[in-house]
Amino acid sequence: MILAVAIILLLVMWGILEEIASPGLFGQSTHTLVGGAGLVGTSLSTLRITTNWILNSGADPTPNALTAVVLIAGPIAYVSYRMAKLQQMPSPATHEEQLDPEYVQHKTMQWATEEQADRQPSPKSPTTAGDPHKIREDFRSDNRSTQNERTDLTELDFDWTTDTGVEFEDVGGMEEVKTELKRDVIIPLTTQREKAEALGISPSNIIFHGPPGTGKTFLAKALATELGLPLVKLSGADVQSKWINESSQKVKALFEEAEAVAAEAEGAVVFFDELDSVLKNRGAGRAHEEDTKVVNEFLNRLENTGKHNIVFIGATNRLESLDEAGIRSGRIDKKIHIGMPDCDARASILEAQLSDRPCCLTREQIRAVAERTDGMTAADLTSLVEEAARNSLFRNGEAKITGEDVQQALSD
Q1: How far apart are CA 173 and CA 342, in angstroms?
Q2: For 343-411, CATH number?
Q3: Which residue among 195, 265, 322, 397 is least enclosed by CB atoms within 10 Å?
Q4: Residue 396, Cα to own-chain centre: how many angstroms?
Q5: For residue 32, is pLDDT > 50?
């Protein structure tokens, strides 16, 4: 009986060994091998204990002992055999079809197509062709939503924003300037981008020059809003450093970051206030060596802004102090003078400033105020309206600006 049990166990072990030797057993079947070996070992140990007991005692095993051997060793051996016979999933690398080069190429192209489809932006709804303002507004909305999904501007080194809080409608006066910017900058980058690219029209770099307080910074912010592009605003203090080579390195880092932002947002606006503090005239040998390095870095970077859809805007009160090579065509394409506003422009500025405040001034009253503010800049007129608002609140306790409030502000 004991011999019969041993023969059965040997046959089971032989079947397990055949399964182990077969090519279908791979890494994920290691648990089968280990489990089977453990259970078979237990069976053999049980058989060995029984055999030793018989040999040492010299007595024949009782029927109960033989039954115990069969009940213990038999089921364990059977379970071991069943584990070894578990259906295994073949490794992908063993399938002849999947090793075929054409199959591999097909799967690679399929994965690439699926990944590309995941990256495709959702189709945009068609815009209305009749209203240019509606088209630009739709473009800005779509562009901002795309930027919010793709670009985290807060993690960048420079202070980028997509919300300036200023629109073209807020810019009083400057009608000729706004018309020029729409024609040469806004339309080629928004509603007619594809046609502009086909015609080889690249974004124009601009310099706003004129007296202080005439609205150069305000206009630059409004332009960025109209374009629907991220804006970074800097001045000379943001790049100047007392350490050797650091200023030019900051200029380099600025434009490299702008290129990265433009690649994500399909464009970017870099506004540099007080440009004369960094793009200094190098003539007559007056420039310091570090200033020359900064100018040279600007020259190299300004030549490549069009390739990356970057609009560079510089503002200065002294156009004549800028380096001549830096403002030539090809680097700076448009030089727009922002002068003192005339009466019509002052009236437009006042209307724009009063439009988002509660007031009861008529157009005739606003025109009369404009006639009395000759020589005032856009910044002066903004301060005038703010002073009138304070008069309305603190002098009269009302939340509405009146003509009397404005007259009092003029007198103060």
Answers
A1: 9
A2: 1.10.8.60
A3: 397
A4: 49
A5: yes
CATH number of 132-337: 3.40.50.300
Residue 282 to residues 108, 276, 288, 329, Cα–Cα distance (Å)? 56, 12, 8, 18
Tens-digit pLDDT profile for residues 256-279 = 999 999 999 889 999 999 999 888
Contact of 19 with 86, CB cutoff 8 Å: no
The residue to which tokens 């030539």 are assigned: 328
Place of tokens 């295994």: 88
- Those residues with Cβ within 8 angstroms of residue 375's Cβ, 6 or more apart along the chain or in another chain: 340
pLDDT given at position 202 = 81
Structure tokens at 26: 């791979």
Helix or strand (DSSP H, E) at 284:
none
Amino acid, single-letter form, for residue 241: S
Q: How far apart are CA 164 and CA 269, in angstroms?
A: 12
Of residues 63 and 164, the one with the higher pLDDT is 164
Q: 315 or 83: whose pLDDT is higher?
A: 315
pLDDT at 26 over 50: no
Classified as helix, coil or strand, 316 is strand
**Rounded Cα–Cα distance for residues 235 and 276 (Å):** 10
Residue 272, SS3 per DSSP: strand
Residues 185 and 223 sit within 8 Å (Cβ to Cβ): yes
